[in-house]
Amino acid sequence: MNVLTKPEVIGSIEEMRSRLTDARSRNVSERVERGEAGLGRPRIVLVPTMGALHAGHLTLVRRARSLGDIVVVSIFVNPLQFGVGEDLGSYPRTLEADVAALAVEGVPFVFAPTNQVMYPDGAASTRVSAGSVGSLLEGAARPGHFDGMLTVVAKLFNIVGPDVAVFGQKDAQQVFLIERMLADLDFRTRIEVVPIVREDGGLALSSRNRALEPAQRAAARALSAGLEAAASVAGQGAEATLQAAHAWIDAQPLVKLDYLVVVDPLTFLPVGALHHGPARMLVAALVGHTRLIDNVALNLP
Ligand code: PAF
Question: What's the CATH number of domain 207-294, 3.30.70.1350, 1.10.443.10, 3.40.50.1000, 3.30.1300.10?
Fold first, then answer.
């Protein structure tokens, strides 16, 4: 019989660090006992989340397990990345169910600090700036979001000290900005990006999907359908991809489009008419009160 070991749920920074020091030396001794010494330092892999875990997160966790020796999942609804009037208060918080799901995945450690632990002064006095790309697209709709996101990611990396951290491709701008922060600020952590996981029907999995009513969920599928249609005509150029996606999205009155754009993956700026090669189409829309984002890779001729 497979006996589940519940993850240790840790709330304090000091305890997290000391548990990881112990886990590292335990891992080394176990390897020596198995005659596997000389494999290098045990690798810590972090999966940062805001909880309300779904199948997409569990895919990140499985990838994390394949990448290292000690997996930590952080669960923290970071107030710094929510703006005034956003869904901080109603963001789903399901710690018990999350821990149960992580037990099934064999995760040893969950770091679940309170706001007081992360921001003892009420708000971090020092923040990471996401720079100019941080105020485009998601950053234009959610001012300060990316500064808050990068600040908590930097804190989590300093607390856990991961060799690798795993993120989902759904948050493409987040991934771009984290990669840039790691390079610009000389972090040692590298990131692994996992493809988007979708429901049947194509909707990208998100903790926010649970706020969608059935008719809204059906309408929201126009986003992924639009991206798929765009990718299928990528050989005809950026303008054709935009038209193909608009045809799906504009046909859905419940979907209020915020932006639909093709960006250069190296700069995250909209592509010009002469751009060719790799590009990414990004979409964001409100469906009811729920903000949804999605994206797809394109190869432009
Ligand atoms: O993608 C998320 O869930 C959050 O932005 C992150 C990376 C956990 C930071 O709060």
Answer: 3.30.1300.10
pLDDT tens digits, residue range 228-242?
Answer: 999 999 999 999 999
What number of CA atoms fall less than 13 Å from residue 12's CA on the CB side? Answer: 4
- Active site (catalytic) residues: 57
CA distance 218 to 288: 12
Crossing angle of helices 13-33 and 145-160, rounded to 10°: 50
* Range in 30-34, 160-164, 220-224, 255-259 the model is least confident about: 30-34
Q: pTM value? A: 0.96
| CB distance 149 to ligand 1 below 6 Å | yes
Q: Going by CA atoms, what residue is nearest to atom 6 of ligand 1? A: 49
For the 8-194 domain, the top CATH level (class) is alpha beta
Measured from the Cα of 156, ligand 1's closest atom is 9
